[in-house]
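Hi F.,

I've been meaning to write this up properly since the lab meeting, where we talked about keeping a consistent format for the predictions we share between groups. The idea is simple: the sequence comes first, exactly as it goes in, then the structure tokens exactly as they come out, then a line or two of notes. No screenshots and no reformatting. I'm using this chain as the first example so we have something concrete to point to.
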Amino acid sequence: MSARYFAAADLGASSGRVILGSLEAGRFELSQTARFPNGPVEEPDGIHTDAQALFQAVAGGLQAAIEASGGALESVGVDTWGVDYGRVDAAGELLESPFHYRDDRTQGVPELVFAGLPAAQLYAAAGLQVMPFNTIFQLVAGRDDPHWADAADLLLMPDLMSYWLCGRRVAEITIASTTGLLDVASRTWSEATCAHLAQRYGLPVPRVLPELVEAGTLLGPTTEGLFAKQLQVVAVAGHDTASAVVAIPARGTDFAFVSSGTWSLVGLELEQPVLSEASRAADFTNELGIDGTVRYLKNVMGLWVLSESIRTWQAAGRDVELVALLAAAATRPGLACVLDMTDERLLSPGDMPARLLAMAAETGQRLDADPASICRCILDSLALAYRVTIRTACELSGRDISVVHIVGGGCQNTLLCQLTAEATGLPVIAGPAEGTALGNLLVQARACGALNGDRTALREVAIASSELTTYHPGVLPLPAPQWDAAERRAAERKA
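Output, unedited:
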């Protein structure tokens, strides 16, 4: 049987890529046809995403994928980061560059919203962790924007890209679940939430919210003349974390996951949302996945803190390279300084090492200013955050686990993987690095009839397609009592 070809446009928070997937004998081979930066753009009114430039980069990668497949490419699916959106008018024109989630216009907005729509009520519907950049808060922050008068549809970033590819305007459900506008139990737009936003802030919801579709929906062919041949556009799991979870190389359900990249998304895959008051108090989110599943997780700052630190050092003329930095960090004392990786001060671009040093001083901890010590602090802090998050998720959901899967670029950070095994006391399976792209491709292949079965069947293909590394606890001189003590100290500082 000859190979079948599919293309994933995987747009992360800091870079984008187009990945060509060749499926043959139940195994995907992946190759990259384009990679491009995707940083925030400073404009006079704030931080934006240059969506049109991003689309042009995607289109170039897809044309290259058509050529690399010898014209056999069948389809394309787009996944991106969550929450951000563009508005198009009745003629389909983009009204402005989408605001970027790192823009600070939403500071203080959650408290404003909760004054009229109690946090407990919103959580009972949307089940979302409170992050100031959630779509609902972005909408309220921009409530006086005159563009609303001309807005016909609000399209989240993967939906906007798919619209430009094929002309159909929809809201794929996994990305829609990042907005705060969804009822996650019924998998529909929340009438109560939309009515409140319309009445209190004059926002045109639900009028501008498109039809919801499940991941795996065939949207139609690409616009004639856009490429050398027409491709089928598939609404894959549009939120990059949802696509990454599809590709987790797991057998069974007793696993936790860390989707590790710019952000760390840490949690469990469940059949039903957890909407209890205890879950809300613990700030867990319920985002939707494929085949009726729920991703029960918490957003931890992730490797953004490390990458921004490296950028700061390099801008200052220091010779800092990741592999050498990790090797040096491994020689530093473990758990010497542990910081809160959910602190909002770590969200925006800037001098990250200075912020970390200030946070250490505030909490009465010593943190040396050299890059290796700061790197070790970041990775220890992330591993401790993973430990606490996974245990809490299990307690709140009643789920027992026996293994942790790390997917995404962070699975190549060997020190972080080993620290996660030490912190959780569980084996950690790392890989695939291109988990998001692979999950995107798996959903496409099933939608186009090249694969069959449920997500368990898809994961068997993920296992066959991946190089995996297993990390066992007990390798580093960091026994459980040290992690227990670090966790107690961190909790005391936060109290």
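Notes:
Residues 30 and 191 are 42 Å apart (CA to CA).
The chain has a mean pLDDT of 96.

If this format works for you, I'll send the rest the same way.

G.
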